[in-house]
Task: structure prediction
Amino acid sequence: MADGDRTRWNDRWAEAGRGTEHGSSLVDLVEPWLPTVGRLLDVAGGGSRDSLLFARKGLDVTVADVSDVGLIQARQRCLAEDLIISTIEIDLEIESLPAGPWDVITVANYLRRDLFASLVERLAPRGMLAAIIATETNLERNTHPSAPFLVRAGELVELVDGLETIHHSEAWRANGRHEAHLVARRN
Ligand SMILES: C[S@@+](CC[C@H](N)C(=O)[O-])C[C@H]1O[C@@H](n2cnc3c(N)ncnc32)[C@H](O)[C@@H]1O
Result:
């Protein structure tokens, strides 16, 4: 039950405000393989700037997230540049992911291990999945995210069983976090 998630994240996005710089390095990660057209689903993208960066690339972007406040911010930020994105308010703890097929699916800084099988399933043929999740090593320098939201070394690749791995790395990043980065393709 994620009413707690909705309230907590609505508060966080409201506090951050529409001008927030909050976002991940998803666009940089996937850029070398990004199609110039197609449907992209950003899972748990909330009010991050990632959706704007993908919309600027010309993709047909949908953000799925539990926080209506975050989703409004994402839409408004894009509208300010005459870019239109779709948003879906969804509680991923109890609801299914929006039906595909999606040419690109992205997820950053949100970990539900049992979600990955449906992410893979909803990819279009040759579709790509890009994911960024902090690893357990991150706890050496940061107290957040807490352990349940961190992947073990090598775990992210295991979670996308059935996809061809195009890129996988685990390292300390410019944002000060130790993150696993993955780009994988459906064949
Ligand atoms: C750490 S933020 C990550 C935002 C963005 N992906 C990024 O990296 O900048 C986590 C996101 O997960 C969303 N979230 C938390 N619980 C959720 C749930 N049960 N269903 C859907 N989204 C959820 C939050 O609203 C928030 O936008």
User: Anything to note?
Assistant: Residues 2, 5, 9, 22-24, 44-46, 48, 50, 65-67, 70, 90-93, 108-110 surround S-adenosylmethionine (CB under 6 Å). Residues 3-185 form a domain with the Rossmann fold fold (CATH 3.40.50.150). The chain has one domain: 3-185.
